[in-house]
Amino acid sequence: MMGRTIFIDPGRCIGCQACVSACRECDSHRGKSLIHLDYTDEGHSVASLPTVCMHCEDPVAPCAEVCPADAILVTADGVVQEADTTRCIGCANCVNACPFGVPKIDLQAKLQLKCNLCYDRTAYGLAPMCATVCPTGALFYGTVEELRAERPGVEVADTFVFGESEVRTGVAMVVPAERVRWPVPGGLPVVEVNGKDVRR
User: Fold this and answer.
1) pLDDT band at 184, cuts 50/70/90?
2) Torsions phi, psi of 68, nearest 5?
3) pTM of the prediction?
C-alpha cells in the first residue's frame, strides 16, 4: 500500500455529494467529476459509497494492462493516471477491465476519464479535493498510522477478490473489525446487505 493514500470508510458516508462537487472544481478535470457516489441498495436504503479509483497495484492495474495505446501511465509511486489525451482512442477496454467500475468514457471526446488521486495536489503533499471537503471523514487522506491514531482499532483492506482473481490496491477500504475476511470479496453478486448474508 502507498504511504499516503485515500482510505474509504463507507460507514461514514452520508451521500452529501460534497466530494463530487469538489472533484468537479479541480482545475485538471475540466469541470467533470471523476468520483462517483454509488447507492448500494437504491430504493431500499440510503446507504451510499464514494467510488474513487482504487489504484490497483498487483497485478499491474487492469485498466493499464489492457490499454492498446499505452495511454494509462502508472507512476513510480503507484498512482494510476487518467488516460493521456494524446494517446487514448476511446476503445473502453479500461472500462471493461476495471473490477471496481471506475473508468468512464466521454463518448463525445472519445476519451477515458477516471480519478487520478488529484496527482497535481498529492504529488506536492496536499490532500485530494474529495478528502478535503468530506464532512464525515468517509474519505480520509493520510497514512494508515494516522488513520489508526484518529480511529483506534480500525481495520483496513487493500486486497480484494473477484471470482478467482485477487487484486491488491493502493487505496484502502475501512472494514468492520469483527467481519474481516481476507481477501475482502469484491464485485457482484452482493453477498451481504446490512450485516445479513444474502447468499442463503
Assistant:
1) low
2) -75, -15
3) 0.84
